[in-house]
Amino acid sequence: MAGRGKLIAVIGDEDTCTGFLLGGIGELNKNRKPNFLVVEKETSIAEIEETFKSFLTRNDIGIILINQFIAEMIRHAIDQHMDSIPAVLEIPSKEHPYDASKDSILRRAKGMFSAEDFR
Amino acid sequence: MGPTEKKASVLLDKKLLVFMDQLELLEEKREKLNSLIEQGWFFMSKARYSMGNKQVSALQYGNEMEPLVRVNTRRLESGEAAFQTDRNTQTTPEEKPLAEKLVEDIGPKDTEGLRRRTQAKKVLTTEEGGRSATETELLRESDDMKPPPSSKLEHNPQQNPLRWFGVLVPQTLKQAQVSFRQVIELSAEVAALQSAVLATRKQLQQQMMEKNGPQTEGQ
Fold first, then answer.
1. Do B19 and A108 touch (CB under 8 A)?
2. Torsion sign (Cα): B109, B110, B112, B116
3. What residue of B is the nearest CA neighbor of A91?
4. By residue range, what is the domain housing residue A12?
5. Cα distances (Å, whole numbers) of residue B88 to A2, B26, B66, B71
6. Does A11 fall in a domain?
7. Do A105 and B198 touch (CB under 8 A)?
8. Measured between beta carbons, which residues in chain A are less than 8 angstroms from residue B184?
9. How many domains is chain A built from?
10. What value of ipTM does the predicted structure carry?
11. A84·B80 Cβ contact <8 A
């Protein structure tokens, strides 16, 4: 039963990744490809975007957790993802508290109440 | 306003209330999720304080990892997705009873195949000289049927990630692990709720278009 479930992937700073790996989500597959990315100062936006897109295409991933400040860097890629699986969850980081107004999902939901909808 | 339009408005209002409830629940769960993550970081910082700054970092990650938790996903007819975590508790050595763990820790690890106790059986048969040959045969058979000693724990990739940070880790690191386990459970719930919010929004938009469609076309 456990074999059929999907993975939870993380893109985050060191503490976020360490915490979630401690929780038991970490996996290194046969190709030694991890389901997490530790974003450091020297990590480029292109690398983050590439990893995010590779997680989206992997069909063994069910949820992608991403620090909100990192999500801000690749907002266009997150906004493009409309499918429900894998779900993208924006989480806070140590230096950047969670801001609901920046969350892709909540912004989409907020779009519901535009003047256009109430004509 | 005709009766069909009135009915459509009532349905739309009901859907909107469901949507609002879902948003409220999502906000509530989000708040809980964020506070649990913060709690996890706090415990991790405490552990770092007692273990040393470099002792709780990405450098300690294991070179082999097997997920201890997976998420079962399912697409529902309404368009939303259901997420449910599935924690694999059977294979974690940490969860095994203490007595079993002790045997595994002190037992032979490198010479598993060589420990055939034929010598000991001979001694046993000579001591109990009165025992018949069939009895000794049975004894040997029953010994052979015993399961082999457990495999090496060190090479088990499904070990508790706490072990990456040492054998005797502080209690605070264990507390951090508990917090993050709860976060993982909650994140599946939040993901399901997010999907439900988006599905309801889509339905709401469709209903609005159905209701306003003829009017906008006429304008």
1. no
2. negative
3. B34
4. 7-110
5. 6, 27, 10, 11
6. yes
7. yes
8. 8, 20, 23-25
9. 1
10. 0.89
11. yes
